[in-house]
Amino acid sequence: MTNSQPIIDLQNVAVGYNGTDVLDNVQFQLDSGSFTFITGKSGAGKTTLLSMLYLIKKPSKGILKVFGQNINFSNRDTLAQMRQRIGVVFQDFRLLESMSVYDNIALPLRVRGMNEKEIYRRVVELLQWVELHKSINKQCSTLSGGEKQRVAIARAVINRPDILFADEPTGSVDSEIANKLMRLFVELNKVGTTVIIATHNEQLTSSYNYQRIDLRDGSARLYPALQHI
User: Fold this and answer.
1) Which of 128, 186, 174, 127 has the alpha carbon at shortest distance from 155?
2) Do residues 13 and 114 both lie within one domain?
3) How far apart are CA 36 and CA 31, in angstroms?
4) How far is residue 150's CA from residue 131's CA, in Å, rounded to a whole number?
5) What pLDDT digit, counting tens, does each position of 45-54 carry?
6) Less crowded by CB within 10 Å, the N or C end of the chain?
7) Does 46 share its domain with 146?
């Protein structure tokens, strides 16, 4: 599905921590259904930019629109509704380690009040998709890094989000698992999810012909697919 307006629109945006802007005068637009890498060296501001895009932080100046709505003028309830349309895969997984794989993935649906029969159907279907159906009852603390990452992805997409953000999703896994995770993101994108991945892995980004936003010296530049930095 293609919208007439961009799904994400930044106009002269600055964002940072503790009163200091990490990024300034950032301007770009992302279309619904697009796939984008956010690249840059460690400390360039990838995680800071992501935290603003998935509505945890507001810009210190400029205009950020997500789903066509200006974030600066959105109240708490509106932001909460918007976050329900967003999935996030955090760099440190943020799983509930003492709970099972099933319960971690089911949690967002339980929060929404979905009935348990439908939750079970969705979770089992998704676990088969990420090749973890045999680990459904395992406690998350017993999983490998690659398995935890796939659980985190499954939990992020169980709500069928319009946008999926992933912060360094391949940073703690080997190349084989990294390629498997990337194939999952590609398949999600094919069914219409807007995918945004922050990574410093140049080998990974060069293997896939998607647009990228490169962060450098406090600024951001959008490079279209097929164009190299």
Assistant:
1) 127
2) no
3) 10
4) 9
5) 999 999 999 9
6) N
7) no
CB contact at 8 A, 175 and 153: no
Domain range for 96: 92-160
pLDDT exceeds 50 at position 197: yes
List the structure tokens of 98: 């003492």
Domains held by the chain: number: 2
On the question of pLDDT at 229 being above 70, the answer is no
169 neighbors 199 (Cβ within 8 angstroms): yes
Determine contact, residues 38/215, Cβ cutoff 8 Å: yes
* CB-based burial label for 185 (10 Å; 0-12, 13-18, 19+): buried
**What dihedral angle (degrees, nearest 10) is formed by the CA atoms of 19, 70, 40, 34?**
170
Q: Tokens for 173?
A: 């896994």
Q: Which of 160, 180, 210 lies at the terminal end of a domain, its last residue?
A: 160
**pTM, 2 dp:** 0.89
Q: Give per-residue pLDDT as tens, 117-137.
A: 999 999 999 999 888 999 999
- Domain containing 34 — which CATH number? 3.40.50.300
Q: In the prediction, which pLDDT does 19 show?
A: 78
* The domain boundary residue, chosen from 160, 179, 197: 160
Model confidence at 91: pLDDT above 90: no
Give me the count of residues in the chain.
Answer: 229
Statement to judge: residues 78 and 166 lie in one domain: yes
| Integer Cα distance of 8 and 103 in angstroms | 32
CA distances, 81 to each of 78, 123, 183, 224 (Å)? 5, 22, 29, 31
169 in the same domain as 81: yes
| Residue 190 clears pLDDT 90, i.e. is over it | yes
